[in-house]
Specification:
The chain is an all-beta fold. It is built from no helices and 23 strands.
Length: 333
């Protein structure tokens, strides 16, 4: 049989890159005051937690010793400051415990600080923050503060915060950004107070963006922003190539051996008795001639290819005496 195989290839469109899960906002919380340890509650149902800390500086170098959530250490992204003036630090944790738990920050000295936590869902767990940028201005200026950041992934979020050193006003976010939290310190000395606002912005392409905050009165400020990367999901094929064998029927002569039994005449030698009649005449010469006729039948088996007994009569002549003219016997043959 002739077999034809046709390969049917279905349309296949695998995603050129892995599918992504969109980032979404979960919750925000904040605290402000003058202390060495800051504890506050945050209710989390996301997979990423970012803590942003703006503080007045008590020493040279970073004043933030540690940050934890639900007793587990958080990872520092950066801590920058102008010596003996102010600083900004960011910490994060992937896959934080869900529910209401405590964020705890330990700080050197008792200068005032304002801190906020923000949790998100749909964040990449192994590389959540690929880029960030900071800006600290120790001179008193009016807004805005425009801080550039170049993202390296599509569909990321920009998460930032800006502090101005006053309790007279809050910085406001510019177009495209969404305000998520704000907090401020108050009281004396007024020079140690600060007002902080935190925001997010969803971006779709990898390029240069500006995280921007504005205010009306000249103040010192500290500003930070990070790119939060979207989670990757497993690639999902939209179509898969399938090799399909197609059989096309064709007429193919098939030789079939058939055993047929045919009656064939077969010669069988069968011993068939054939009766042969033999007559023997014996002449005995006596003074008184007496003729004695003796008949002897002898069965002589003859092989005849026949299933029917056949009797064949065989006549065997016996010499007969005749008288001669002279009165004697003459044998006829």
């Amino acid at each position: 049989m002739i077999k034809r195989t046709a390969l049917a290839i279905g349309l296949m469109l695998l995603l050129a890159s892995s599918a992504s899960g969109a980032i979404s906002f979960d919750a925000a919380s904040s605290i402000s005051g003058a202390a060495t340890v800051y504890n506050w509650a945050h209710t989390n149902n996301g997979d990423f937690l970012l803590v942003k800390i703006h503080y007045h500086d008590d020493s040279s170098g970073c004043d933030i010793s540690s940050a934890t959530y639900d007793g587990e250490a958080m990872t520092q992204l950066f801590c920058v400051e102008t010596d003996f003036q102010f600083g900004v630090a960011y910490y994060y944790k992937v896959n934080p415990a869900t529910g209401t738990n405590t964020i705890s920050v330990t700080k050197l000295g008792t200068q005032k600080a304002t801190m906020g936590g923000i949790s998100l869902s749909g964040v990449h767990q192994s590389d959540p923050v690929p880029t960030f940028n900071t800006d600290l201005d120790s001179s008193a200026d009016t807004g805005p503060s425009d801080l550039g950041i170049t993202t390296v992934n599509v569909d990321s979020w920009l998460v930032g915060s800006c502090s101005i050193h006053t309790d007279d006003e809050f910085p406001v976010v510019n177009s495209g950004q969404t305000s998520r939290w704000n907090s401020q310190t108050t009281g004396n000395p007024d020079s140690g107070n600060e007002s902080v606002r935190g925001s997010t912005e969803s971006v779709t392409t990898a390029q240069l963006y500006t995280d921007s905050y504005d205010w009306t009165t000249a103040h010192q400020h500290s500003h930070g922003v990070v790119e939060v990367r979207e989670a990757e999901l497993s690639p999902t094929p939209t179509a898969s190539p399938t090799a399909t064998s197609t059989w096309t029927p064709t007429h193919t002569p098939t030789h079939t051996k058939t055993h047929a039994e045919t009656a064939t005449p077969t010669m069988t030698l069968t011993a068939t008795p054939t009766w042969t009649k033999t007559i023997t005449v014996t002449a005995t010469e006596t003074d008184t001639p007496t003729w004695t006729s003796t008949s002897t039948e002898t069965a002589t088996p003859t092989a005849t290819p026949s299933a029917t007994p056949t009797v064949t009569a065989t006549h065997t002549p016996t010499p007969r005496a005749r008288e001669s003219l002279l009165g004697g016997n003459i044998w006829n043959r």
